[in-house]
Design a protein that fits this description.
21% of the residues lie in helices and 32% in strands. The chain is of the alpha+beta class. It has one domain: tt1808, chain A (Alpha-Beta Complex), CATH 3.90.1570. The termini are far apart. The model has no long low-confidence stretch (mean pLDDT 91).
Length: 188
Amino acid sequence: MSSPAKKLATYDDVLAAPDHVVAELVAGELHTQPRPAYRHALAGSALGAALFSGYHGPGGQGAGGGWVILTEPELHLSGDVLVPDLAGWRRERMPSVPDAPYSELPPDFCCEVLSPSTARLDRQKKMPLYASHGVGHVWLVDPSAKLLDVFELDGVTYRLLSTHAQDEVVAPPPFEALPLELRRLWSP
């Protein structure tokens, strides 16, 4: 006897999730995680602040050119609802920030801050979705290990470009014009 077919989750399930969780819809499956712990939040906030100030800048033209950098944007990509910790769009692709609760325009850059409860989802399910939508660069930040992995889209999958650790000062793609002090991402 076959088991009953599993009901696919919908955007209504995302909307019905409690406010204290991050809800995502990946391949018809609802994933919820508690709000990030402080170590996770610190890494994402510090990186977001550096990228925003260095690239978004007054009028959208910081030192490194025009980018729209957002923290935890809701992305609707072909039926999936993803919430990366950070995302960025080149200004020529997103000339102004839409007045909407989500975007259907895939970003040029995504960053996921890994935690024990999200690392598998981020690596195994979300990264392939980002690749399938042409997101050019993905960064994975691991605050526990004090690591930054930088990936670049290479055809239909990502290629690891570099891994950086501890207190290095780095300027990885696509943000080569802005040196980042990794020590600022880690909790003392």
